[in-house]
Amino acid sequence: MEIAQHNESLLAAHQRAFNYIAGETDQTEAILNKLAAFQVAIPSWALGTGGTRFGRFPAGGEPRNLEEKIEDIGLLHKLNQSSGAISLHIPWDIPSNPANIRALAAEHGIRFDAMNSNTFQDQPGQALSYKFGSLQHVNKAIRQQAIDHNIEVIKHGIELGSDSLTVWLSDGSCFPGQLNFRQAFQHTLEGLQEIYKALPDNWKVFVEYKAFEPNFYSTTVGDWGQSLLYAGKLGPKAYTLVDLGHHLPNANIEQIVALLLMEGKLGGFHFNDSKYGDDDLTVGSIKPYQLFLIFNELVEGMDARGMNHAKDLGWMIDASHNVKDPLEDLLQSVEAIMLTYAQALLVDRKKLAAAQLNNDVVTAQEVLQQAFRTDVRALVAEARLRAGGSLNPLGYFRAAKVRAQLIKKRGLKTVATGL
Amino acid sequence: MEIAQHNESLLAAHQRAFNYIAGETDQTEAILNKLAAFQVAIPSWALGTGGTRFGRFPAGGEPRNLEEKIEDIGLLHKLNQSSGAISLHIPWDIPSNPANIRALAAEHGIRFDAMNSNTFQDQPGQALSYKFGSLQHVNKAIRQQAIDHNIEVIKHGIELGSDSLTVWLSDGSCFPGQLNFRQAFQHTLEGLQEIYKALPDNWKVFVEYKAFEPNFYSTTVGDWGQSLLYAGKLGPKAYTLVDLGHHLPNANIEQIVALLLMEGKLGGFHFNDSKYGDDDLTVGSIKPYQLFLIFNELVEGMDARGMNHAKDLGWMIDASHNVKDPLEDLLQSVEAIMLTYAQALLVDRKKLAAAQLNNDVVTAQEVLQQAFRTDVRALVAEARLRAGGSLNPLGYFRAAKVRAQLIKKRGLKTVATGL
Amino acid sequence: MEIAQHNESLLAAHQRAFNYIAGETDQTEAILNKLAAFQVAIPSWALGTGGTRFGRFPAGGEPRNLEEKIEDIGLLHKLNQSSGAISLHIPWDIPSNPANIRALAAEHGIRFDAMNSNTFQDQPGQALSYKFGSLQHVNKAIRQQAIDHNIEVIKHGIELGSDSLTVWLSDGSCFPGQLNFRQAFQHTLEGLQEIYKALPDNWKVFVEYKAFEPNFYSTTVGDWGQSLLYAGKLGPKAYTLVDLGHHLPNANIEQIVALLLMEGKLGGFHFNDSKYGDDDLTVGSIKPYQLFLIFNELVEGMDARGMNHAKDLGWMIDASHNVKDPLEDLLQSVEAIMLTYAQALLVDRKKLAAAQLNNDVVTAQEVLQQAFRTDVRALVAEARLRAGGSLNPLGYFRAAKVRAQLIKKRGLKTVATGL
Amino acid sequence: MEIAQHNESLLAAHQRAFNYIAGETDQTEAILNKLAAFQVAIPSWALGTGGTRFGRFPAGGEPRNLEEKIEDIGLLHKLNQSSGAISLHIPWDIPSNPANIRALAAEHGIRFDAMNSNTFQDQPGQALSYKFGSLQHVNKAIRQQAIDHNIEVIKHGIELGSDSLTVWLSDGSCFPGQLNFRQAFQHTLEGLQEIYKALPDNWKVFVEYKAFEPNFYSTTVGDWGQSLLYAGKLGPKAYTLVDLGHHLPNANIEQIVALLLMEGKLGGFHFNDSKYGDDDLTVGSIKPYQLFLIFNELVEGMDARGMNHAKDLGWMIDASHNVKDPLEDLLQSVEAIMLTYAQALLVDRKKLAAAQLNNDVVTAQEVLQQAFRTDVRALVAEARLRAGGSLNPLGYFRAAKVRAQLIKKRGLKTVATGL
């Protein structure tokens, strides 16, 4: 089945909805253009079934190699026209032939977003173990191994045309006394400085933070304050990366985002949703209003600094798919992001600023809620339609029986690398 | 300015929005009828400026007595046609002439919802102190005083035509060792049994629970499990009352609601919103999707038991208004409740049930999100319009300069009783 | 090296400490007797290195089969004389020859504590998948498979001389809409009822609850209130099991324990410690005072009901050992439990009760703190010494190079079954 | 009754305990000297009964003016010899005659610790309201009023001999949209810069942070990361102040402390304890091990920088006394601090460092637990005894019927200024 054909059956209802919403705002075209430009990177490890320490229940048809991962993302992008980037994970995705991989990605309209290093697991044949950390480790040889790995990742990224490195360290401790916090910080900083030196001039490095897990007492890059300390000491190419699930309960993430933007140190995002911890659920499935408030700060803060929404921050999904088809889940996540971005673009900024100046809390709340309560599904669908995508990506995915085809082609028992 | 006059200026836009949404569902009339029937009680203590232990910043024009409180709610109800009930607090609102008060309320179309007792504060002239609890107290005389007070509250309620009593106990402890938990439970149970005996046959008693505050180590009715234990031991007229802000971080309130409905022991609700604790913020201002999920369970669970949405549970707002005009805040809260109720009514229950039967998690999520993403503002506005209310209650309140008039009439320094 | 020999070098210092503390209380002998009687079961899955979804860093010398697991626990028990029980997990520990296993355990002075079923993972060759739950499942055949498995576990337990079954269900949902909460509860209840029927008369079934993980939106036995509902509907042989890590942030676990005891429905404990979630850290390593407060309620509540501390509740460790030698960790956990139990026995209950009666919060706190601040290490060591154990189990374990021997015997790459 | 007389009856038991513990360490004298030097400031507002937004239950005999507050602290200091400092709050404690107040304090051996400003409440007659914040306010005149107030506080402090200013701002917002986070930060920074300019050369300013309350959506100095940002931009006289109750659930405060020390930006402490939020409970009453871990970092980190434990950080209690006699509660709090400090001094730092170097997590935990499990009450008592204080301050306070005397002298209905 062709996308166009599937669209046809949906067109009348879409047109009704679009006409209504387009008639209610004079910014329709501007918003459609911004939506079209906005691309969310898909992490290579999110294409397979995820799991927990208690178990994993794989589906089937998972990509067996990097080429198939790119094909999967190519399909997502063909449907939603908003997934034109991939974020690779080394060593899970070392390209045997970078030129071929670049060509394949280009065919699918996909660019290479941030590269991800892995010093939180031991790989078969690895000389030294990360059991007690990597860059923080008391053993210099292990720190060096972790530094070398990150530099290796940069090299792979250069070959593929990426221009950023995300460093997520699980380093930390499980018990009081295990770590000298200060020394762990200093070791980590020194390691990051070595990695920073290996960055090409046009590259950025993102220092990701996380409150807890897999270490359950302390984490050495544990919150935005720590990440910002590292990024500040590293230099202008270093930024903080915000993963929505990496906070303590009740944290005001949107305020963190606003302050990082203010400091010129926000680098990018890992989108997901959560109720308890780093649950890695589908974006927007638990706290959609929080996501809206974050986008509201992003739009306001990036505009205030003259930043390009689509290019000046790294946007990436980082979720785990334990009970859903990973591709369907990713379609839902991207949809949630685009809807929320559209709502944030609809916020009446002048009215909001005026309300803030008058301490008119009621009106300030109304302005945000008016945008959030607006049904923008037709705007996002129209942007997709104009770009050649599907009016209903999930509907198409089901109607075209994509998963069944993938299982037929790749088998039922395939296991994609990743979590 | 008349409401009708104000509506006129908004009518064209409303009609456009309503026509669109009415065209998208075949349940419009059914939903409008349910919305019209749904009334949210306003607590008498929410009409004045709230505060925290750090301070209070009163506005002005607050109601100086019960009559003025009823007038305020009358105004809200005139505007939104959804606030036709008042929940009184004794001793703050003891009516000097119940018959007159009843007549005044009737004039405004307001009935008397649950009565609230107060054994968490000492009143001037009170014989014995509640410093160390009321129904849980080690001193029998103090327990009796609290029992007597609750029975007194029932009597006031009977005179006014109420038919339920809400018992919120702040009883608990601030330090380990302070309390024998078992004894505190038994004392509280015995007290509630005495109060239960004084309930008229057609009355209900709601046992409210709260995780913490004002006691900071333990609370003697601390969670739904404890409340249900009490309610079960008391008998068929006793129910659990759920206040949205009275839970530990990350609690799944919608599941609690579903289980209480299953047990036939859900009595009613205190609506508010919160980010950290019992913040008592405007309903729907922080976690609107959680509110939707709760209403989704309410609609499903009440329908499954053949319950009447409008009559078989107690619906009440319980919020504090520290930085907003209390009346404006209440209008926002009621609006959020009505919108969420409308969205819950829109859920495609057949499709949801089918998805659940197939473990089609993706579709189940879609069904809920489709309803939540629908812009139902015009439905709620239409229900108000048909009932003679305002298309935009908040807009009218501002345009008619209601607060200025109240200040002029009542003064700037008035202080309503309550928190 | 013999234990006695190792003890000799520690005897002088021990005697000094013991003499001092024994001189300060007239209950020394009574406490020593209670300590000697108190045995903590070791779960069979805790003898290997644990891990997280991000990775696992095995040590070496892990037990390769049930026989070796019993040997490991035998060693622990020989050292601390307080680990004379094992809690098995089916299917990880199905005994090929129950009689031999019983004899081996008896040799080591070990009895069989609660049996644990597993319906949270799919085993190789399993007919139907637990991906979407087990007892809660919409598919009757899957529910039946889970019921049958539990009955099978009971049979294994009977053969070994166990007399209780712990049912931990990971059943729940990851996304709003996935589950009909009410139906999930009913299915689960029906399944438990079938299992209950298969219980021998002298058996108990423990219904364990958990707030979240591996499901991240709802859990079908999610808190003590739900567990108590199930246990109440099941009958007198059903009890609630409390795992310290299975609560929402800030929960008052000691109050829950007191109320469950009051209701006669507390069945047993899974000990561990945590800072963030179900971190499964060494008992007493993060919040030792909370553990003390729990034991304080246990001692008080069990005494009030005339219960036998050692026999009338199930005591078990449930921790994961990601960065420590599992046997060393277990020695630390048992030590923490024994110390805390000793402190709870030291509480001056008359003085506490009098303070509570007087609302003398300061003295009540003092009474608890006096006990907690007392150094009881020599009491616990003396109890071990008298029973023939080691004055310093951890010191002996290191001095005798136990782990090196186990690695030599079993190999470096062994992997114990479990988490 | 004289202190010496009361001590006499306790001396034999004390001597036994002290002899035992003194025999177990060779650092006894060094520790006693450090304990003697360590002084904890009492905040002037903690001498009266606290309360919550729900109510307040005053005791009696509360100090009616600054002179009586100093007398109360003088009494505490006489008993425990560790409370030789007072932290004043302006405007609650404006001295009418600074010279007299200084002389009175000197008589009691009390110095003036950090001064506290108050821009979180409106005072009678105040020109402009802080309802919507102070230094963050959109209105420049209100910001200036707050700046002027802080400069006024510095002036009072200079007159009294204080050398530091604590700025706690409740500034923030209750609802999304209310605040432009960036602008609020900038305004606050500019205000702090003005205040900073007014600081004498030998003064410090402490920027206190708090996660939430009284604002329930955002706080403008909300966490240590934000406080450090302000302190860094202000200059070398600006530091971060850590209040134990001002964090999100599960925060690792000891790691924060270690990092702030590393950055040379830790200024001081507000001690209290809590289970849920900013509960302001007695120090050490809920999580004594966390307090120990914090002191462990303080001792290690201050030693590493060559800092003087007693002088180089500000130590202050900040608690609320809702159900206890405030003076008794303060005695318990100071005792908990001194015991914990003594335990932290007992930590075997060489062994800990060696364990850390070997990733010997088990031993690292043992080292900390050995210190924490040691009964150091006799050490702290001995330090008090040598300094002329009471062996049992709380016992003396009760035996001498201090509260009854204060009520007799000051009356039952007095209300101390403060929370």
TrEMBL record, chains A, B, C, D:
GO molecular function annotations of the record: isomerase activity; metal ion binding
Gene3D superfamilies, alphabetized: Divalent-metal-dependent TIM barrel enzymes
Organism: Chitinophaga niabensis
Alphabetically ordered keywords of this record: Isomerase, Manganese, Metal-binding
Protein's recorded name: L-rhamnose isomerase / sugar isomerase
